[in-house]
Amino acid sequence: MPILEISDLRKSYTSPGGESSLVIDIPRFSLERGEQIALQGESGSGKTTLLNLIAGILKADGGRILIEGEDMCSLPESGRDRLRAGNIGYIFQTFNLLQGYTALENVMLGMVFGGGSDNEFALSILGRVGLEDRIDHKPAQLSVGQQQRVALARALANRPRLVLADEPTGNLDIRNAGAAVDLIRNICGESGAALLLVSHDRNVLDKFERVETLSGINRGLNN
């Protein structure tokens, strides 16, 4: 069974003038366990909307999103939160770190939402991303690249089966962007987590063996 199966997924937005715009209309898409896919699309094309639907942050208008065989679309908000916490790690473009908390505390809080905490594993994952000497630093005391690595550690804190990455290199320079993608891919590979990374950066996309285009899987972009 694939870790992710999408079928007949639809999402529309209504403009202030009352007009409905179809943003997501995906007949079928799947991601195998441990597979790593880059999804290409321009800014504003619906990439973040798709990831938020997969993560259950947004509720779809129709269709199915199966995570480990459980349909995210059929669940209430509390059920979507539970399914996300137990199976999905999300690396946000803007990192979404809590500014008043240290790197270690940000990772530990991510664990709490998953139903528990493990200080030893939190320390080990921060060490894996090269921040063993920054665990007591708050985000404002870290470089942008270091904040990105805290966000990666937090996404992996609950040992997710699926990692979603939304333009994770958008705030990094070319050198750090390449290193960040390599780190994300390597850690996902080591843990066996599947990875769906969205980007419009050609340098990032070229690092993946399989690249899909959002326009290729999404009929909504052609309407």
Care to describe what's here?
The chain is α/β, with parallel strands linked by helices and 223 residues long. The protein has a domain at 4-94 and 159-222: P-loop containing nucleotide triphosphate hydrolases (Rossmann fold, 3-Layer(aba) Sandwich), CATH 3.40.50. 35% of the residues lie in helices and 24% in strands. It contains eight helices and nine strands. The protein has helices at residues 47-54, 77-87, 103-112, 119-128, 144-156, 174-191, 202-205, 214-217, and strands at 4-14, 20-31, 36-40, 62-67, 70-71, 88-91, 162-166, 194-199, 211-213. The strands form two sheets. Strands 6-7-8-3-9 form a five-stranded parallel beta sheet, with helices on both faces. It has a four-stranded antiparallel beta sheet with strand order 2-1-4-5. Helix 5 (144-156) packs parallel to helix 6. It is globular and about 50 Å long. The mean pLDDT is 91.
